[in-house]
Amino acid sequence: MSKPEFVYTTYIETSAEKLWHALTDGDFTERYWFGHRAISDWKVGSAFSLANQAGPKVIGKILESDPLRRLTYSWDPQKEDSRHERTSRVTFDLEPRGTVVKLTVTHDNLDEGGKTLRDISGGWPLVIASLKSLLETGRPLPSTALTPSSQKEQANV
User: Fold this and answer.
1) Chain centroid, CA 125 distance in Å
2) Is 10 exposed, middle or buried (0-12, 13-18, 19+ CB in 10 A)?
3) Which site among 72, 96, 118, 154 is 20 to 30 Å from 110 CA-CA?
4) Of the listed ranges 13-17, 37-41, 83-87, 96-100, the one predicted with least confidence
5) Cα–Cα distance measured from residue 152 to residue 138, given in angstroms and rounded to the nearest whole number
6) Can you give the chain as a three-state secondary structure string?
7) Model pLDDT for residues 64-79, shown as the tens digit of each residue
């Protein structure tokens, strides 16, 4: 039986270089990920964490790093109510198409009916929309985009 997966695709008017930078630069991730900083040296086998001022929200390790094309890391939420779930995996595929880049985010190896699957189903669309907005307009989505229910979802994404 295959494990559930979440797939989200969008097209961003930017270059692969700028999108890769946006995915891997902690200062940049904080701007569109609602205060969460991605931390790693982005080398295969290296540690990864997603943290805000309260501390790490997700930890993992870099599984694949092919600059400008693909980034994959493991995803282990650090919230008490998610710790019993399996470690999942996030993959970003970048495909340049003229003046835009097709970005596909795949989050797989999830527990069916698990909290992580529920959280990321609402969280990833917000994060990616904010990333797209920041790259195309210079402004991320406002924090008002985080409604009470999406703030809960955002805690794990």
Assistant:
1) 9
2) middle
3) 96
4) 83-87
5) 26
6) CCCCCEEEEEEECCCHHHHHHHHHCHHHHHHHCCCCEEECCCCCCCEEEEEECCEEEEEEEEEEEECCCEEEEEEEECCHHHCCCCCEEEEEEEEEECCEEEEEEEEECCCCCCHHHHHHHHHHHHHHHHHHHHHHHCCCCCHHHCCHHHHHHHCCC
7) 999 999 999 999 988 7
